[in-house]
Amino acid sequence: MQTATDTTVGHRYQEHTGELRLELFAPTREELFGEAGRALAEIMLGERRSASSSTLRRVIEVRARDRAALLVEWLNELISLSEITKEVFTQFRVDHVDDTEVRAIVEGVSPELLQTAVKAATLHGVAVEPAGAGWRASVVLDV
Amino acid sequence: MSALATAISDAVYEIPKGAREGMHVPARIIADATLMAQIERDHSIQQLLNVTTLPGAWGRVVGMPDMHEGYGFPVGGVAATLAPDGVISPGGIGFDINCGVRLLTSRLRREQVAGVLEEFVHQLSRSIPTGYGRHGRLALSEDELDHVLDEGCRYVVGTLHLGTEADLERIESGGCLRGADASKVTVRAKQRGQDQLGTLGGGNHFIEVQEVDTIFDEDAARALGLFLGQLTVLIHTGSRGLGHQVCTDAVREMDATLARHHIELPDRQLACAPLSSREGQDYFAAMCAAANFAWANRQVLTARVRDVARRVLSGLGETSLEIVYDVAHNVAKLETYGGRQLCIHRKGATRAFGPGHPELPPRYRAVGQPVFIPGSMGTFSFVLVGAEASAEISFASCCHGAGRAMSRHAAKQQVQGRQLRAELEAKGIVVSCPSNEELAEEAPRAYKDVERVVDVVARAGIAKKVARLRPWGVLKG
After folding, report:
1. Which residues on neighbouring strands pair with residue A127, listed in sequence order?
2. Closest Cα to residue B8, out of B25, B28, B26, B35?
3. Residue B406 to residue A41: CA distance in whole angstroms
4. Among partner residues A47, A118, A140, which is closest to B437 by beta-carbon distance?
5. CA atoms within 13 Å, Cβ hemisphere of B293
6. Which residues contact B416 (CB under 8 A, 6 or more apart)?
7. What is the DSSP code string of B252-312?
């Protein structure tokens, strides 16, 4: 867990009775989306995060209506691809993010089991906003 | 928020239609003062009131005593919209479409199997894949998957020969919603589900080996085939990744078409479309297909449990396992109330038809629809039957569990998984769960008191208590 400042990259969990609310912060949108992917991997892998070896590199391109929906689409793409390929994506090179499109190259691991099943990212209270010199986001995941 | 709610009986609170701007209908919460105080700790009531603003909302929205904060809809909520032009909202069903519960009964007593209980749970854990992303033994071709989506349990029984015709009448809707259309399920959703039939999944899903330890209503218990000391098995799972993707796809599409349908929402995850619109019809057909997949999943799991029972329990007596009933608690269905066809959204709520309802199988028509309320891990579960007043009070809906009272994060901070495992084992409960951390997330103290929840729905007149089930073995998803 880290303290949010304009220049740090990090995430933290906020209280939510049934699901999981994730808060993200980073100096750039590219780093913000990379951090969202790393946070998702941390949730999915839990104590098994060191397990198994690196998988193939994959190119991911996602489009959405607006910048808040784009974060949800990005996470949902990672969640569904992860389930189909039995991989958890842990390394992210996010090349481009604007209000409606993200392009990235991802790489991951193939764990034997997962810590937490993440069903989907939701639009409930989702926000992606400039914060000082950086960016901040909040999103609820159905777990 | 409590200032808005007025107790209208010792088990029902009501929030009138004018309490907040935009409400089309009042809200009703089935709770006593203790449960109401727990419900008020998070944003459940605010979320319930948001649901009252959906276009076409009809009658009232209802919060169950196990209600807690969700995303868009609260978990433990029931909403009716007037067909054909009222909306259908995928968030009002949830990502795990037709997550539900199925109860199996044996002819054996728990004491007869005590010596092999550990082996029984161990063999269940070897036969049934648990955890997220794990694949089952049934890898379906595209054509076979389409049949499962269109035909549900009928295909699993008739073509895959997993189960019998007698099973089908003991499943809500016969294990097949006729509105299903596999062609409305995206390729991505099918990819997620292709190897998941016969898997339990993760989170709060489980298979529990239990004993009927208390009977509250002898006649109803007899009608359901329950007797004291009886060995039972409860299966709790849903439509796995396929259902999750159906919801994801529909929320995206409906979020994009809100303006075209002139819909404004207080929460974007309430994304919806008129049931009569193309988006509404496509989602309904895909949701029905995902519900069929979930029933098929529980049918395949039942076959696996029956196989294990035959292997492990043979020599101890009759090893057959009969389905008592199988109920969904995340689904939307078209039902008729007061001569009007309504789209009933149940999100973390169980259908609970009272006696005499024509949709019930003949064997349960006099007693009412069986309803199963699982407790948290290591605590009692309950069997109820729907009561006549449920139609008027809650659109024939009941609670679906104990209901979370504490976040997973808080549970892990307060409960040591290793200690919980030791406590369960000290009670004689065999636990199969690969991770202590996951165990801690589902700790009993993270949930409300299931006995209080069940007492409240009984007092409200929604359902009647029939029996209590004591856990002896848990396979956690």
Report:
1. A138
2. B28
3. 23
4. A47
5. 37
6. B436, B440
7. HHHHHHTTTTT---SSGGG--EETTSHHHHHHHHHHHHHHHHHHHHHHHHHHHHHHHHHHH
As a whole number of angstroms, the distance between CA A65 and CA B271 comes to 14
DSSP category for residue B160: S
Chain A: nearest CA to B246, how far in angstroms?
A: 11
Q: From chain A, pick out residues whose CB is under 8 angstroms from the CB of B42.
A: 16-17
* Closest by CA position to B277, among listed B56, B59, B51: B56
How many angstroms separate the Cα of B188 from the Cα of each of A80, B4, B92, B243, B399? 8, 44, 22, 11, 32
DSSP state of B414: H
CB B224 within 8 A of CB B383: yes
What's residue B440's pLDDT?
Answer: 84
List, in order, residues 6 or more apart from B186 with CB less than 8 Å away.
Answer: B245, B246, B249, B286
Please name the residue that has the structure tokens 């909520």.
B77
CB atoms within 10 A of CB B126: 10
Is B141 exposed, middle or buried, given 0-12, 13-18 or 19+ CB atoms closer than 10 A?
A: exposed
Two tokens, residue B296: 């098929």
Active site members of B:
400
CA distance B221 to chain A (A): 33
Closest to B244 in 3D by CA, of B192, B187, B299? B192
CA separation for the pair B409, A26 (Å, rounded): 23
Q: Which ipTM did the prediction report?
A: 0.93
In whole angstroms, give the CA distance from residue B236 to residue B206.
5
- Tell whether A117 is within 8 A of chain B (Cβ): yes
Residue B177 near residue B292, CB atoms below 8 Å: yes
CB–CB contact A83 B192 (8 Å): yes
Whether residues B407 and A17 touch (CB distance < 8 A) is answered with: yes
Cα B222 from chain centroid? 24
Structure tokens at B161: 């020969």
What are the average pLDDT values for consecutive 10-residue runs of chain B, which has 477 residues? Answer: 83 96 97 96 96 98 96 97 98 97 97 95 92 70 97 97 97 97 98 94 92 98 98 97 98 97 97 98 98 98 97 94 98 98 98 97 97 92 98 98 85 84 91 82 87 97 98 92
- Paired strand residues for B432: B475
Please report the pLDDT score of residue B135 as a whole number: 67
B30, B350 Cβ separation under 8 angstroms: no
Q: Closest approach of chain B CAs to the CA of A17, in angstroms? A: 4
* Residue B278 bridge partners (DSSP): none
**A69: nearest CA partner in chain B:** B252
| Residues of A in Cβ contact (< 8 Å) with B68 | 17-18
Contact between residue B452 and residue B378 where contact means Cβ atoms under 8 Å apart: no
Give residue B177's identity as a one-letter amino acid code: L
| Bridge partners of residue A102, in order along the sequence | A62, A97
| B418: enclosing H helix or E strand | helix B417-426
Is the CB of residue B92 less than 8 Å from the CB of residue B105?
A: no
Beta strand spans in B312-361 (E): 321-328, 330-337, 340-347, 350-351
Give Cα separations from B355 to A141, B146, B197, B387, B390 (angstroms): 39, 35, 33, 7, 10
Reference B192, options B233, B155, B145; nearest CA is B145
- CB contacts, 8 Å: A116 with chain B: 132, 202-203, 438, 441
